[in-house]
Amino acid sequence: MTKNSFANVDIVLFSAGGARSKEFAPAAVEAGAVVVDNSSAFRMDPDVPLVIPEINPQKIRENKGIIANPNCSTIIGIVPVWPLHKANPVKRMVVSTYQAASGAGMSAMRELENQTREILDGKDPTCKAFPYQIAFNVFSHNSQLDADGYNLEEVKMVKETRKIFDCPDIAITCTCIRIPVFRAHCESINLEFTDPITPDQARDLLSTAPGVSLIDDRENNRFPMPIDATGKDDIFVGRIRQDQSIPENHGINIWVAGDQ
Asked: Where in this chain does the record put each Semialdehyde dehydrogenase NAD-binding domain (predicted)?
């Protein structure tokens, strides 16, 4: 690919890392194409819309040649939060992610499989895609830490959610973890709302929300799992319950699973 590769192209999809996007996306735009970029290169650029179709599709019209796609953990987390936020503004989000190997690509998935075989065969696991053993293990997300001790994945969720919701004052804190699952991330999300809200009200809102499917079977203790979400577009939501630590029914807990 060269910077002259985009003549007579209408739409260009970039998903080859931020450096490649920064190098080639401007050339594609100059050639007349619209770029949809999956990297972090342009997400926080104020002139680039950051779009999730189930939340802010109208922002597509504001593009100046580039449309950014959010991080996977952000999408999975906030697609089900959005219909709740529209009905009753969220004041604070506390998110813990349980992220599959697939988020780091095919080499990471193969590493999980190979390490599993190695360990079961009594061998030491080979670590290449991840800095630590992923099979039979859990570790903090392997992205760069900032001066405050937050990793890049956590920072992305905070900044991207505020931009997509157009809500710079929403309080968000996040902890991102890698788990030994092939595909689909899960997230535990605690929400504090402006006004009281009950689990039934939250369930009703989520039951008709675009891109959301409910698996919330308390009787059988059946809630979203990675195997439910694998290969699916919807975000699966369950474990919808009142946060009894927040007074006057202002808090809700949910559990979500989504492929990426």
From this structure: 1-63
